[in-house]
Amino acid sequence: MTAVAPQAVTTTAPRRRRRRMPMARRGFVLVTLGIPFVFYAIFVLWPFAQAFVYSLTNWSGFSDTFDFVGISNYRSLITDETFLKAVRNNLLLAIVVPVVTITLALALATMVTVGGSSAGAVRGLARSSFYRIVSFFPYTIPAIVIGLIWSQMFDPSSGLVNALLTGIGLDQFESFAWLGEVSTAMPVTMFVIIWGFVGFYMVLFIAAIKGIPSELYDAARVDGAGRIRMTMMVTLPMVRETIQTAYIYLGILALDAFVYMAALNPSGGPQNSTLTMTQDLFNTAFKKGQFGLASAMGVVLAVLTLLFAAVVFLVNRLGKGKDR
């Protein structure tokens, strides 16, 4: 009697059938994602694409005919000292304004929320609501109004700043042109921008710090940490995302800053010391009638803005990795 070897039985796994998205969900996705993307493409992406196309032409802005000139507009910008000066001014603003604004706002927010008595529960200063209202007030004023008010404050002949300084015996500031001197025009402009935004970002950081569990501060205090160490070891890591968002918004503002510059120094300041890319773009387009060249400036400004945001994201990610 011979044994029969069992035959190997091959089984094929049933193929998974792809489930179709229900109609109700399709409609939801279409309404919540599709329609907004269409509007975004029409009103954001398409104008950017048009600006890039116009940057390759010699369009005057007031005619229906133009010639394609390739990248000659970009070559002109590389050798244009006025535009390069504006780029340097914008980069200086993008470095100084966010750093100073965030530092001051974060320091004020820390004092208001956790800068109170060192005994008992961690709490902020007394009457902190009053400080929030007062600090937030400048943000409620339109930027153009802030610029015009401070331009009058720094007026060399009738400004309040010179009157106060000469009133306390500093006669060297009599008729001093703060916005007319190369050494002071840009610092004064930075001061005005920072003054207008510190209050808003202080309130933003207060909201972020309020979301930090109080147990973390209590534990740090038990370990003997002082206020500065608690800020560095507890507050900053917990509000890192908020700081990143604030830095990006302030950087974009600094790369623009058209409204403040138009109010304080519409001509670009002495020796173009406060000229920004947006001011140069405006003058090139509407005063010189070179919309093609102005479009190239806009493309450069957009690229610099994207690079700035990418650098901020990269630094924040590297900081997270170091914390881990």
Question: How would you describe this structure to a colleague?
Answer:
By secondary structure, the protein is an all-alpha fold. The protein is built from 13 helices and no strands. It has helices spanning 23-54, 72-78, 81-114, 128-136, 143-153, 160-167, 182-210, 214-222, 227-238, 240-256, 258-264, 277-287, 291-323. The radius of gyration is 28 Å and the shape is flat.
Could you tell me how far the N terminus lies from the C terminus, measured between alpha carbons in angstroms? 71 Å
Multimeric status of the protein: single chain
Shape: flat
Give average pLDDT, whole number: 84
Overall SS class = mainly alpha
Describe the main β-sheet briefly: none
Strands, helices and their partners?
Blueprint: H1 23-54, H2 72-78, H3 81-114, H4 128-136, H5 143-153, H6 160-167, H7 182-210, H8 214-222, H9 227-238, H10 240-256, H11 258-264, H12 277-287, H13 291-323
Helix pairs in contact: 1-13, 2-13, 3-7, 3-10, 4-7, 5-11, 10-13, 12-13
Give a short summary of the structure.
With 324 residues, the chain is mostly helical. Helix content is 68%, strand content 0%.
Defining key terms:
flat, mainly alpha, single chain, 324 residues
